Amino acid sequence: MAGLLDYQHVEISFNGNAVVHDVTFQLHPGEILGLVGESGSGKSTLIKAAMGLLGSSGMVTRGDIWFEGKNLPDLSDSEMRHICGEKIGMIFQDCGASLSPIRTIGEQIVESLAAHRKVDVQTTKAAAMELFDKLKLKDGERVWNSYPFELSGGMNQRAGIAIAMLMNPVILLADEPTSALDVAVQRQVVEEMLSVRDEFGTAIIIVTHDIGVVSAMADSILVLQDGNVMEYGRAKDVLETPRNDYTRKLLSAVPRLRRG
Length: 260
What we know:
The protein is of the alpha/beta class. 40% of the residues lie in helices and 25% in strands. The strands form two sheets. Strands 6-7-8-3-9-10 form a six-stranded mixed sheet, with helices on both faces.
């Protein structure tokens, strides 16, 4: 069965040096896939390839990344603009840093939607307030009117999830979305991302070095080491009966953040 997002034998290189090797996996509608591995294993590079965010020195040098019948690395910039944000959303490791410091959260929400469709500020604000409420982001009016530096890291991160979700993408790519947060806020962000999947049927790839986050969220897990797939399968199987020594080492190193 074809996936919603289908990586087939993908190799990614920077300045001609391959850093991701022969990676194959599928993301299905409504599925949460955890990409796990230590820093430098190629996790973030894999999802950035789908968004065309590898920069001038990076490229997919072998294989295909299929979405809606199109091979993403072959698309032009204008074709990618129609997909990024609207169909495939992304949450960055530090949403506060990726937000503009000189515009309010509300202004940035309006701008991000206006890049893809005609928007009315009041309608957009009403939709944002409704989503803030669904994501249990209290005091939505204050968040809407705040600049990123006026909000806590956790609040910025949750606002970033809301901004990505307002486009109602079919896929959400989350790059270490909880790594800079304390455990209590981590749990809130995990619960909010699960509610996003339940509410909208969104398929999610979450990149993390934290097995605890993955054990709380993922339906399936892909373990990477040095750009190579060490293990790929149902989360329950990978977590309970890992076949690979590297996976066992990762599992033994981190306490589990269980579903609440």
